[in-house]
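User: Structure please.
Assistant: Input sequence and predicted structure:
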Amino acid sequence: MPPISASPGRSVSRTVKAARVGSCPRRLAEKGGAAGASVITTKQRLILEAERLFAERGIDGVTMRMICEAADQKFAGSVQYHFGDLAGLLYAVFEYREEQLQPLREALLDQAQHEGLLGDVRHLLRVIFEPNFRMYADHGQIAYIRCHSAYLATHRPRGVDHPVDRDSPTTRAMRQAMDLLDHRLAALGDRRAGRLEAVGAMVLFGITEYAAEPSRHGISAEAHFAELLDMAAQAIMVLPRPREAEGR
């Protein structure tokens, strides 16, 4: 694993802040409309409309025809032409967003090395999930988080790949954080992957649940996310139950 180093001549905190500002450089409206929409390619429009529909209806509740109609594509086979099938389009949604989220993950890994936190479970979870949270907290975007949450609930259990499973360059920083977390949780044995998926579902759902009605929680989005990280760090480190105690 190559060493992680902070940018020369720049404080780590400033690097993280800069990455937060630029974490969603392509800030397109979640319903596909935006000032300057003429620069949106057909593939981008299909990705954005798929993300929105997956978030609203669940992945299984969306058809290729629905996405084409939402993206104002007269050619009903646009999804198949650009992505092959719905699974290919879902993968493209992940690639599109994870590329935007990677700079903040890299900055948070820089911070971890600078502050001696590469073995800190909570900080590693922060590396993985804070970029998603920032989409909501800084940019008001929730569709990708809902889409990702739906994926963990329905399609991840079916073996549908996320780009991190294929070592996509867009998920390099995520994979590095996951590898560090995997090493830290070695005592869990073969339960490590399942734990991360379980706490990931909890964190992403927790963000979407807060976004639905923030006033009901009585705390800021930042405080809510901090609590989610606290809970996730505790949950992921619980030691497996002895085999003879399983089912009790």
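The mean pLDDT is 87.
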